[in-house]
Design goal:
By secondary structure, the protein is an alpha+beta fold. The protein is built from 10 helices and 10 strands.
Length: 303
Amino acid sequence: MSSKDAALSLGPPPQRITVDAAQVRRLIADQFPQWAGLPIRPVAKSGWDNLTFHLGEAMLVRLPSAAEYALAVAKEQRWLPALAPRLPLPVPVPLAQGRPDADYPFPWSVYRWLPGSAARPDRIADPVRFALDLAAFLAALQRIDAADGPQPGTHNWFRGGTLRTFDSLVQRAFAALDGHIDVPLAREIWASALDTPWDGVETWFHGDMAPGNLLLVDGDLSAVIDFGTCGVGDPSCDLAIAWTLLTPTARAAFRRRLAVDDATWARARGWALWKTLVTCARGDEEAATILDGILADASQAES
């Protein structure tokens, strides 16, 4: 289950569908005959929100797996071409938008393929350089004019809005993890995040700064993908990556490069806590390790 599904366990989970290569081949042949002769095959690791297929060697087809995820298609089609030229790293830029048909019920997209492997600590060549490159990308994203950008809502699972949206989920996670983690400390971190005000200055944010959306080539950050949760609002949600991927030394460099104030950092730690608490409560061992790091970092900050 993706963190976005976990975020909205507030209601029933999205009703996902499956798509195979034969369906994609028919969609391409019907709507984009100029590409009908290109081979189609699933990517090695397709995501949860979207089903992704190679289209030849240089393109990909991205099809939402549920109606909730399809809300992002028009947004990406509208905004990625505007954002891409202003960013220091490659991001997906749509080449075409497909229509629903009798075989597939949602709008879908064709993109240029961006090479690289998903970021993992053991694949990153230089953790501090990676952190600085990522910070530079986020700084550039935040400088882009936010006027008329998409506000937090169902299209992006309320990223960029208030963390109070997720309070009931976090409280249930506290109950489930009582006796397994330092719940009093976790409650302090969460309360601090909820009580720390945002100045209301809206900026662009990616919304899902996760290892799988950060691509590496030769160990260096090479591209940022999956803007389905992007929008304008409080950018602290993007800073959760400081705890979910970066080493302590790299985290410090990341914060310095972005000149993050204490209030934004507290909210960012809250986003990281929410994301890991909910997945940890479901028994995810990797999330448990990350959660331990968040708690240790907060404890050191207080001492």
